[in-house]
Amino acid sequence: MAAAPLWTPSPERIARARITQFAADVGLPGASYEELWQWSVDDLDGFWGAIWRQFGVAGDFDTVLADPSMPGAVWFPGTEVNYAERLFSGKADDALAIQEASESRPLNAWTWGRLREETAAIRAGLAARGVGRGDRVAAYLPNIAETIAAFAAVASLGAIWSSAAPEFGEQAVIDRFAQIRPKVLLSVDGYRYGGKDFDRRGHAARIAEAIGAELVPFGYLDGTGWPEGFLVPGEPLTFDRVPFDHPLWVLYSSGTTGLPKPIVHGQGGMLLEHLKKTYLHLDAQEGDRIFWFTTTGWMMWNFLMSVLLGDASIVLYDGNPAGEVLWDLAADAGVTTFGTSAAFLAASLKAGVEPGAGRDLGALRAVGSTGSPLSPEGFRWVYDHIGEDTWLFSTSGGTDVCTAFVGGVPTLPVYEGELQARCLGASVEAWNEAGEPVVGEVGELVITKPMPCMPIGFWGDEDGSRYRASYFEMFPGIWRHGDWLELTDRGTAIIHGRSDSTINRGGVRMGTAEIYGAVSTVEAVVDCLVVDVPREGEESWMPLFVVLREGDELTDELVTQIKRAVRERCSPRHVPSDVIAIAEVPRTLSGKALEVPVKRILMGADPASTTSLQAMANPAALAPFVALRASASRP
């Protein structure tokens, strides 16, 4: 560990931080962050009640946590809220809400008045199509201001939002939306990426038919916007309050043995969590302009949109982030917090990018990184090339909770390669295999007490069995997240990658089952296995191992065909780094592919420590992976 911090906040910055005022308001003036965090997890009623009161949630409550069971916690019973109502609360019509840019749109600004009018018109248009409380509205839309207005309109009705990025393949979208049977599909005509236009009209029509939804197209590439007659202008924006645990949106995490998990989050739980993150951890204040590079298929889109709950404005970008385009945007939009992925920072480092060369980044005070662990080299690059007085915060969380468990704290120092602290209200520990908390060594990331942002369930999982199996099977009554975590003796955290077989590319998770489904369309492939291997200082390595039909060879043409199938049916992010032929996939006696053991072997683990050879149907099948790990020609 670094002997000295890379950055320490000034006394003025600490005094100005929202979290400093919050501590005083809850009766802990001058408390250390560790003391504040300990209170927040020891007194869940006091902490989450304070979030409600301090940050202006409408209405009152009698009880905070009626039942602390996990799963099944009951928060704020009898209360009613509306996420969109809080979003617009106290916002002046002439105040800046959004700046947006894309490969097909120059930088432009939306005021709160424009956002309010657009949201009201979309709300009325959806209501005219019969959309109301509990109905689902799916969006196949890009990261633009109209998408945020559409979400707010859906939430204002008490309907349920779900989105996928336009670059997602047709089948990947169907696999997600067909599970929730939306009433309406809002879909873009196409998008521009890397200077090339991609038509999505055919995809949208087939998706709408497959999921049984009415299609409402949006002309993005042709500039026509919503179709004639959809918007109903002139209607006032109103909000239908719903019970605290009423569904707000459905996000999708990986399904390693089936369809993606449709994760349902409640209106109230997301509202309180995002108020906490925006005000206390992001420290978003009036005049701040917050940017995070994301697409609508990643939970960071929801997170970025949630910044509008506070006093800051947000900056959106849709298109290829390669090169220096995002640094140009940061200068042009006056970005104060620049959020991106560890892979983007690593790519900037390797490409020799100089963010401050020829552009004014004087407004930039903070850089956020997520999606995968940021390497020590990435930390140093930020301070060497962006500025020594930059608050660099690396965060880690997940789609499962649409937030971060560990990450940024504006009043704490930054140490190389480390996340600053466990987030308030998140009872995070690292546990060994015996279920014992450990410090200074790697363990399973667990949450020992409930958070209001934990899912209210999976869509269609009536008895909760799939939900329990996903998070509570290893340690009953304890949330096991699937990350390897190390807590240091000074309270910082180090994420060592996924402890399961989830494929996490640029922060967007996809289950191995989806990739296998895509590869199975290639006739020459009879079996396959894919793993996501973390690599320090760069994007993870994602090799796809294929068993070929007798007589077939792994030619360049076949590799191209396999990668095209994954790109078109899953997403461009999940195209394998390499395709490697093997004789057989290692499996258990019950036929399950040994994804995690293979991943651990490729990370350097002793094969004997990864699995029981006696439980394998074909122990010799591990030999190629051991050889690959040891080979000097490893890709």
Concise overview:
By secondary structure, the chain is of the alpha/beta class. Among the domains are: 129 residues, Rossmann fold (3-Layer(aba) Sandwich); 120 residues, ANL, C-terminal domain (GMP Synthetase, Chain A, domain 3, 2-Layer Sandwich), CATH 3.30.300.
Helix content, binned percent? 25-40%
Structural class: alpha/beta
Strand order of the largest sheet: 5-4-16-15-17-18-19
Seen as an oligomer or otherwise, the chain set is single chain
CATH architecture of one domain: 3-Layer(aba) Sandwich
Provide the residue-averaged pLDDT.
92
Largest sheet: 7 strands, mixed
The Rg value, from CA coordinates, equals 24 Å
CATH topology of one domain: Rossmann fold
Q: What general form does the structure show?
A: globular
β-sheet strand percentage: 15-25%
Please give the count of helices: 20
* Poorly predicted regions: none
Distance between the termini: 29 Å
Reading off the top of the CATH hierarchy, the class of one domain is best stated as Alpha Beta
Number of strands: 34
